[in-house]
Structures
1.
Amino acid sequence: MAAQTLCRSVVATQLWVLICAVCNLVLALPRLLLLLPINCRITGGKVKSSKSRRVVNRVATALRTAAQSLCRSQSALGGFYRRLAARLGAPKAITATAHKLVRIFYRLWTTGNVYTDPGLDAYEQQYRERTLKNLKKKAQAFGLELIPISDSTECVS
């Protein structure tokens, strides 16, 4: 038991050393791990291309693999990945989820906390509330009001 804990600690330390070798700032980590586009081709004020470059970075590859494995996970991160994959496509969803994993890892490493997954249901409820709040705000901007449909099953006849 203690050997497993020690082994996990050593692996986490080695992973952190690889990340810290590049930079110690949370805002710079995803860009330096090439999880964010660096070489945006801009011409005439328009972004022509903003793809992430192909990299030979072991940490970025490991994070992308971990992000890809979340496609069937029943966790909040799995729900995040699937929502983005449906909207943007799998490659962008993998990069965005890997970016999120880096931010979570950095926050946990610096604070010493343990990650607790809120679960898929909590994530979907939070997403639903956020969407509803944005819809209400848009409706109010147009001078409209959202009224929820009642759950009663009244028959006219």
2.
Amino acid sequence: MQKSDIVTVSLKELYEKNPETGSFHDGCLIATNHNIYKQDSLQKDNPMTLFYYPCRINAIAAVVCEKGKVLFTSNLKRYVLQENTLILNMANTIVKVDEIEDSILHILAFDENFLKDIHIDIQNLVPQFLHILENPCITLLPEETADLQQIFRLIEEESRNLSGKAYEKEILHGYISVVLYKICAVLKRVKQMQETASVGTVKNRGDEYFRNFMIHLQQHYCEERSLGYYASLLHITPKYLTMLIKQVSGRSAAEWIDDFVILE
């Protein structure tokens, strides 16, 4: 693999890289990676080798760090996943692991077709997920960490014994629904804290436009690369959009578009 390549990885490929670390059922991967060291992660059979170069994950993933630290880049921005931290990875996000220490990571990932089969109120949950595009790393309360670790372990244990059983698919869907609602409860708590902290302050128009611009860009950059297109979605002129994005991020809107195009 060349360093400039961006490979799209499926959940099945991740599972087949090291099936001993978890289980895979009909578009859903459940795994726990124990004691991952930077030097060990370069071993051929370790799935982490895939992420030492820019890699597009064709799935929605939730990762809870129980121990250690992982430094990674997600869509050009650097983050730290550490103890008591949850990361949410949306489908087709480009990820690269920069550094990893002795870690224990609980991983739950599923493709979009799997999500469509789960009977939950997606429209009600979407608002909770939107703000993670700005920062996919969320600091958990101790009780939230313990709660998520417990349900992740339960799903992992149950999933190893589901194959061939009656209502296999329905049971797994039920567990995933529980996890999604628990994660949304965490996101709602974080959102409420942010809103409480901002009471009495004037909302920054530039920050709001930047947030919405990045949401639209992540959704449409493969098909639309025109500054005018994104300005029209925000109901402002391209010139005004460029000025606002520059003020907030220090870079122009065109530069952000170019960076996403380069990744593609």
3.
Amino acid sequence: METTFCQSCGMPLQTEQELGTNSDGSKNEEYCVYCFKEGTFTKDITMEEMIRNCAQYVEEFNKDSEVKYTKEQAIEEMKQFFPTLKRWKKTDLIRLTDMIPTNICQSCGMPMAAIDHFGTNSDNSKSEDYCCFCFQKGQFTHSKTMEEVIEENLTYMDGSEKADGYALSREEARVKMKIDLPRLKRWRAHQTTHQEYYKAVNQVIDFINKTCIPPITLSDLASVAHISGFHFHRIFKAVMGESPGDYIQRLRLEKSAFKLQTTRLSITEIAEQTGYQSVQALGKAFKKRFKVTPTVFRKQPEEIKAPVYLVKNSLCRLK
């Protein structure tokens, strides 16, 4: 039998008798019989407690080893080795709230207990914020979303994850990480950026609703948002689902439709009030959107049922 190590205590697994057992009675090749029986861990224990427990056997270890360790040396060696074992590799990410910001990767939440676990900056110095799996040479190693990182973290679950003393199911762990990971530096920055984008777009929407009569240029709107014109156009469309120009055009036409239904203003007056240079310009744009002319719409509004429901919500402040 090939020698492997228990992924909980680090004990060499040299015989089948030393293997733990799964819930169906079969042998578990990852954990020893002292750590894992009938599909569950035999002790609810932290990595630090496991290290202290194993350190009690250092004299017994020295009897069969050419290299002799003191208890203190053995503890230091285990502090380096244990975080690479499956049981301890990812489990503490479930306890992010208690451990942030001490040696927790600010991307995936992995505990960084050994110097080799830390990522590297562009000058090859160690990054104190990110692990070697997420950050190398000053750059992130992947462009995964926070949701994708959570799903990857779930693949490391082995049944030992707990919160407040209770075992976590896969779904419970997912929910907890959705609460905890946004507090990490990498995702906190993303959330702040997204909030700023929404705030900027809302400011522009207020500006458009108050002054949607042309001319309004992209530069005007970008200045209100304090974002460059190129980025503003992309951000606005991502948030609103339409370009700034399409949004303004839609509001002007819906305002025109609203006035046709609720006032006795002439079509010429409505065209002037909504920023169209002529009745013909309004008529052409109106028919393209609502499939009928303004005159027909005014005569038969109930039958046509044009989509003017947004007017009351978006344009109620316009006079």
